[in-house]
Amino acid sequence: MLGGTSEASQLARALAEAGIDAVFSYAGRVDAPLVQPIPMRVGGFGGVAGLQAWLAAEHITHVVDATHPFAAQMSRHAVLACAAAGLPLLALERPAWAAQPGDRWRHVPNIDAAVAALPTAPARVFLAIGRQHLAPFLARGHHWYLLRLVDPAPELAGLHGQVLLARGPFTAQGDEALMAAHGITHVVAKNAGGSGAEAKLTAARALGLPVILIDRPALPARQTAGTVPEVMRWITAHHVVDAADVADRGV
């Protein structure tokens, strides 16, 4: 399993409870990834060829892509490597967020468009996009930025703003209080979907704040599932384990 999301952790627990032989692969984006109840590996594979070689060396028979919706390169590599190796692939894909009454969302296709969508006048921005694509925003230093990261970021020591270290899931009440306390005027987020990171959008709605929402990257066609039970049914249907045994375990 290619993991890193809360749904991936849920799937890991389901696999462990079902006694399914599986390995959880982290990209290594955080210093201390959550420990999982199945064997773990951390780090990249070295492109499509590296992933294909690893799948062969580990005698992998099925692949589940439960990476973040914006981990586009890894997902594309998984599609290509599995196709080349003739392995079945299923993506555990969260539904995207949809606007509700009271939302002030502006959809943009990518990071550059999100930067361009910020006002020309100085703003106080809750920049909820992780740490990989900060440079284009920070180049517009007349804005004040609030960042919430899992790990310390020494490279941001001169940031015009503040860095908070925290690991979700977060609550709408907590995020509303956070934004109010820092005088946030705009929120920038990726349309990751799921419940773990949705609190900031609920808080922005309650405060009447505009949200610049970055659309998901385009990915190759692949089979998808929306829930962990769907993935487990797919696994048993492919005879990875005896279906009756899995049913007895309550999966």
Concise summary:
The protein has two domains: 6-95 and 219-248, 3-Layer(aba) Sandwich (Rossmann fold), CATH 3.40.50; 104-214, NAD(P)-binding Rossmann-like Domain (Rossmann fold, 3-Layer(aba) Sandwich). It has a six-stranded parallel β-sheet. Strands 3-4-11 form a three-stranded parallel β-sheet. The protein is built from nine helices and eleven strands.
Topology:
Elements: H1 6-18, E1 24-26, E2 40-42, H2 47-57, E3 63-65, H3 72-85, E4 89-92, E5 104-108, H4 111-117, E6 124-128, H5 135-138, E7 144-149, E8 161-165, H6 172-181, E9 186-190, H7 199-207, E10 210-214, E11 224-225, H8 228-237, H9 243-248
Parallel strand pairs: 1-2, 3-4, 4-11, 5-10, 6-7, 6-9, 7-8, 9-10
Structure description:
By secondary structure, this protein is of the alpha/beta class. The chain folds into two domains: 6-95 and 219-248, 3-Layer(aba) Sandwich (Rossmann fold); 104-214, NAD(P)-binding Rossmann-like Domain (Rossmann fold). It has helices at residues 6-18, 47-57, 72-85, 111-117, 135-138, 172-181, 199-207, 228-237, 243-248, and strands spanning 24-26, 40-42, 63-65, 89-92, 104-108, 124-128, 144-149, 161-165, 186-190, 210-214, 224-225. The protein has a six-stranded parallel beta sheet. Strands 3-4-11 form a three-stranded parallel beta sheet. Helix 1 crosses helix 8 (228-237), helix 2 (47-57) crosses helix 3 and helix 6 crosses helix 7. The two termini are 17 Å apart.
